[in-house]
Amino acid sequence: MRIAIISDIHSNLQALETALSLIDGMSVTEIVCLGDIVGYGGNPNECVDLVRQRATRCVIGNHDAAALDTTRSWYFTKDGRTAIDWTHKVLTEENSNYLSSLPFRVDAEQFTLVHANPAEPEAWAYVRTLQEASLQFSRFESPLCFIGHTHIPSVCGEDLKTFQVRKEVRALVNVGSVGQPRDHNPQLSFGLLDTDAWTYENIRADYDIRAAADSILDNGLPHPLARRLYNGV
Fold it and tell me: Could you give the CA distance from residue 3 to residue 6 in angstroms, rounded to a whole number?
C-alpha cells in the first residue's frame, strides 16, 4: 500500500493542486493530511474543499485551530495574525465545521499522525533538534510518527543516528510543507510511504509560485507572505 502524507498547505492552492496531480500518478492508495490546511495563503476554502475530498484522514494544525478562534493566534507573527483574521472571515460554515471536527491525533497500526509532536499535540511545540526528537518516542507506539509544523522535511530514528526510514528502527518523520517550505528550497514537499516495501520518500516538485503569490496579494494580505514563497523561508 502506498500512502501520501501532505502537511502545511497554508491555503496555497497552486501547490496543493500540483501535489495532488503528482500523487495521482503514483498509484497511491490513500492520502492523509497533517493539518495547517489554512493560514498565510489566499485560497483557504479551495484548499479545505480539496482536502475534504481527497484525504481519508486528517488532523488539525495550529493555523486551522486559530482560524476557528482567532484568540489562539496571539503568538503568531503580525503577518500571520493578519492572514488568520482574514481566513476566519472568509471560511465557509461548511469548511469551519470540517476544521472543527478534526482530531489532534490519529493512531493507526503502522503510523501515528500529528501536526506538531506526539508528546503534546495540543501544545504545538516544534521538534527541531535530536534532543527534542528523543522525547517523542515514548509517546507513540507505532513504527512511524508523521509530523509537520516546522515546514522542514527530516527523518529521525529512535536511536538518534538513523536518518532514513528502516523497518528495524522506529522513526519520527517530518514530511515538510506543501504550501510554504522553509528549508530554503521553494519546491513543494510531501511524503510517500510504501508499507509493503517499507520505504519512504520525500517528494519535491516545482509549482506555480507566482500564481500563489499573486493570490496572496490580490486578497490584500501582507507582501512578505508572498515574497517568502520564492525563497523557501
Answer: 10
CATH of the domain at 46: 3.60.21.10
What pLDDT sits at residue 87? Answer: 98
| Residues 151 and 190: beta-carbon distance below 8 Å | no
**In this structure, what DSSP letter does residue 27 have?**
T
Residues 15-25, mean pLDDT to the nearest whole number: 98
pLDDT of residue 45: 98
Q: Of 169, 103, 106, 191, whose CA–CA distance to 140 is shortest? A: 106
**Terminal CA-CA length for the chain:** 33
Query: pTM score > 0.90 for this model?
Result: yes
- Domain interval for residue 160: 2-231
Total tally of structural domains belonging to the chain: 1
In contact, 150 and 174? CB cutoff 8 Å: yes
The residue with cell 526510514 is 165
Adjacent-strand bridge partners of 31: 4
Mean pLDDT value of segment 54-76: 97
